[in-house]
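Appendix B. Chain record.
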Amino acid sequence: MNVRRQLTLFRMLVAIDALLVLATYLWFTPEQLSGTRGLPLPAMSIPTWQLALVNAGTVVVLYGLLGRIGFAFALKLDLTGIYRKWAGWRAWFIDPMQTGLAVGVAMVAIDRLFVFFGQGEPFRHPPLPLSLYVTAVAGIGEEILFRVFLLGFCALLLDFLLWRPLGSRAILWIANAIAALAFGAAHLPSVMALMGAATPFDLSVPTLVELFLVDGILGLAAGKWYVKEGLVAAIGVHFWAGIMWHVIGPMFSL
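Structure tokens predicted for this chain:
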């Protein structure tokens, strides 16, 4: 593993995510962004460009730090890390894209089935073009947080508690499942905002089940690709699933 090249690419991904966040805050209004964050944005007297810089800087510091720690976890677990050298374009982009689109189709199908059987209303999504920005920003940032950092942390912790060899298949799958559940729970605030719920208890049981089901599927798929091919592949799975879920899926209805 070429650690220097891996870290250089990681820094580039964090920089891209920060630039996307900067562009999002400069391009869209606070009212448009409130639904994607899960909570109304507080009224502030500072200019929009300063708010954009603060949030972009937060991305650099937070994801940069957690990702660097997570990369150390990957080295200890003997995982790929950021990307697998010499794997080729198919492993880096094409296969993750196909997996992501398939996962996105499954997510949309699950949502439609819940509605068809009268178990809730369709999940609401940010409008275009905001949905594209949200998909790209989340594809990078959430994979750094939930796969690189959290999955790796859980795997090391389980290895210590269960006294198993580092990187064992069982521990990695358990860690992947934990990270996927946390991934679903992290989306509760945004779903509450988009569905007009004041608290999680205002969401219906079918809505909660669907949330953890669709996010769990995406989380497990992204985690599998992270373990196999690294962060770049996990981002690809997340991004293309998000395109199907947030952009293409809402264009069609029952």
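Further analysis of this model is presented in Appendix C.
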